[in-house]
Design goal:
Length: 660
């Protein structure tokens, strides 16, 4: 009997070719868009599902004068998590953009220092070796990074070098199927260094008796804290969040976006609304087309009822027709998804693997949607008596009020989506084509130095320092000699970085400004206009820094004349030692040396931010910013390739996508 129903449904769909083709095209496109977006939304909402009991993991966020960082549980019992609630803990150190050496070649890597307790919190499948970080010289590589370093050879037992220390590969882990917050290439033992020179990031597993809301009521309150041997006080507070919320934590995403992956709940919400509307348009289109066909089949159903067709049989026919059509539409949707994978993966900036969710989603569409549409039409036509069904009581090709309602909804939603897409396209074009207020053309960011930052000068020998600065000097000399390079500078911060800092004006009013530590070359390199004042010819190491404000900061602080502009900070803006004497800059009222034109240091929608620049000596660390002469970019890349063979291992990141 079921086979008869299937044959009948297929025969009907083949006879109504125009209806079938139009419905298939509409359904396939609609479902393809919905499936693509739903897979992305599902991936965003299931981050770190490889964790062991994700709901019990929390992390402290330390707020120092408005600067928020993931930290560790403080020692002060007045606002720390009580030990009775803690079942396990793990401390991590972020060493992103570090350099390791393998086979005499230097590689840039996102490195994380941890201990073996890290694997108490997260499950990683071991491809080779073991998950051991017990030895200070153990290192665990991700599958992709191991392939980059050693190709198809087994990396277990191979040696690599980090900060001159030999590490032995003890394990290789597989990339998790789920999206992960961590974005590391290698794991090393925290025992490798006694002092990593950075704040620990602590993961804490708490027992069911812990109440995060009550904890934040007592810890998320500013406490005044005296700085050791320094003038001024800091305001500090702690806020604890669940690790499942860490991925969407906006207060730290700009500081750790290279080491952690972050998401945006607003994007997920908007995309969910788009999915709903797209799906609704597809279903309404199907209902409208099917309604037209059903009007022509009213008499057929009436005749069948006269000859004994039961309500169950009628429902089965309707469901089978809908099921076969949706099955074809789902199949075609996946064909569209697979053939266009390069396009939407580029839009999402990641590859979304096939998971069990894809099967559940496809089965849900196959079973639930045809069931819904079949029930709708059965209620509409199944309860009419045979005589009524056979009468053509509706004129003008069966136009009815309900069809007008569906058509109105369908076209209204379609029009709304078109307007929405045009708005987002215009907004996107505005963001892409609008100037941030600084130069970006022909600028390269080059990571030229194959050394890591100095953690402890006391443990670094004189010869090591001499070799380090000699290498920097030689690289700088070669950059000066290149005729295709207009100018260059070392910079540990980019034009878009900054930290919120409380600044006090001459009326003792405190305002929050974005602070940046830069050299004199910074303003000329990025094409920032100095609208008032100026700088000294040069600033030597250990010399006095100078203060620069942007227009917005001058206005916020209440200054109209540069001669009247004096500012200070509630804590030292910079600290240096000159002749064994501690120099704190910025705690006393300091004149503003210059005013710079406003620019957008972040997203255009965030607006202009009031900024303070602490201008000091030329930076000798960080990335190398290179301003290339027009149309000479490829020549500069070739020059740098030759240069690295003699001095360095180089990785170029180009603003227009050129990479070597």
């Amino acid at each position: 009997m079921l086979l008869i129903k299937i044959k009948y449904a297929i025969r009907f769909l083949l006879r109504a070719k125009s209806y079938t083709v139009i419905n298939l095209i509409g359904l396939s496109l609609s479902l393809a868009c919905c499936i693509i977006l739903l897979r992305y939304i599902h991936r965003e909402l299931t981050v770190d599902t490889h964790a062991n009991d994700l709901s019990t993991i929390i992390v402290p966020l330390r707020d120092i004068d408005g600067n928020i960082y993931p930290g560790e549980n403080p020692g002060n019992k007045d606002y720390s998590v009580d030990e009775k609630y803690i079942e396990d803990r793990c401390k991590l150190v972020d060493e992103r953009n570090s350099t390791i050496i393998s086979n005499d070649v230097a590689y840039k890597t996102n490195l994380m220092a941890a201990d073996t307790t890290f694997f108490h919190f997260f499950n990683y499948r071991v491809l080779e070796g073991s998950l051991s970080l017990d030895s200070p010289h153990d290192v665990i590589l991700t599958e992709g990074y191991a392939m980059k370093l050693f190709g198809k050879e087994s990396p277990i037992g191979k040696n690599i070098y980090f900060d001159g220390k030999m590490l032995t590969v003890s394990g290789v882990i597989e990339q998790s199927v789920c999206k992960t917050t961590f974005n590391f290439d290698a794991l090393v033992s925290k025992k490798l260094r006694q002092d990593w020179g950075k704040l620990n990031i602590e993961l804490i597993r708490v027992n069911p008796g812990f109440d995060i809301q009550k904890q934040n009521e007592k810890s998320n309150v500013y406490h005044l804290q005296k700085q050791n041997n320094l003038s001024g006080n800091m305001q500090m507070r702690y806020r604890y969040i669940s690790w499942k919320d860490f991925y969407f934590e906006t207060s730290i995403c700009d500081k750790y976006e290279k080491f952690f992956r972050f998401g945006n709940r607003n994007y997920v919400f908007v995309l969910s609304g788009v999915v709903f509307l797209l799906f609704l348009v597809g279903v309404l289109n199907f209902v409208n087309l099917y309604s037209v066909v059903m009007q022509k089949r009213r008499k057929i159903y009436g005749v069948k009822k006269v000859f004994g067709l039961s309500g169950r049989g009628l429902f089965t026919e309707m469901w089978m027709e809908n099921f076969l059509l949706f099955a074809c539409a789902v199949f075609l949707s996946w064909c569209i998804i697979e053939t266009s994978s390069g396009l939407w993966q580029g839009l999402f900036s990641e590859k979304i693997p096939v998971t069990g969710f894809d099967w559940f989603l496809s089965l849900g569409l196959l079973l639930l949607v045809p069931l819904f549409t079949a029930i709708f039409f059965y209620i509409r036509y199944g309860y009419k008596n045979p005589v009524t069904s056979m009468r053509l009581v509706i004129s003008e090709n069966g136009k009815i009020f309900s069809r007008y309602v569906f058509l109105f909804l369908q076209y209204s939603i379609t029009l709304f989506l078109m307007i929405l897409s045009l708005y987002f396209q215009r907004h996107f074009d505005y963001l892409i084509n609008s100037s941030h207020g600084y130069d970006t053309d022909e600028i390269m960011v080059a990571q030229l130095y194959n050394h890591n930052r100095i953690v402890n000068y006391k443990s670094t020998t004189v010869n090591q320092l001499k070799e380090r600065f000699e290498r920097i000097k030689n690289v700088g000399k070669k950059l000066d000699e290149c005729p295709m390079i207009e100018r260059w500078m070392n910079s540990s911060t980019a034009v878009w970085d900054g930290s919120p800092t409380p600044i006090v004006n001459d009326k003792d009013e405190t305002f929050e400004l974005q602070s940046k530590f830069v050299s004199i070359e910074f303003f000329d390199f990025w094409g920032l206009e100095i609208v008032d004042g100026g700088f000294p010819d040069r600033i030597d190491y250990g010399g006095e820094n100078v203060i620069v404000l942007n227009r917005s900061a001058m206005k916020l602080l209440g200054y109209t004349d540069l001669k009247e502009a004096f500012v200070r900070s509630t804590s030292p803006l910079s600290i240096s030692f000159v002749d064994n004497k501690l120099i704190e800059f910025g705690v006393d009222m300091t004149p503003v040396s210059a005013v710079v034109e406003d620019y957008y240091m972040g997203h255009l929608t965030e607006g202009i931010k009031p900024m303070i620049f602490i201008v000091g000596a030329k930076d000798a660390e960080g990335d190398v910013m290179i301003k290339v002469k027009k149309d000479r970019e490829k020549e500069v890349i070739d020059y740098l390739r030759k240069l690295r063979k003699k001095y360095i291992t180089l990785r170029i990141l180009h603003t227009n996508g050129l990479t070597i």
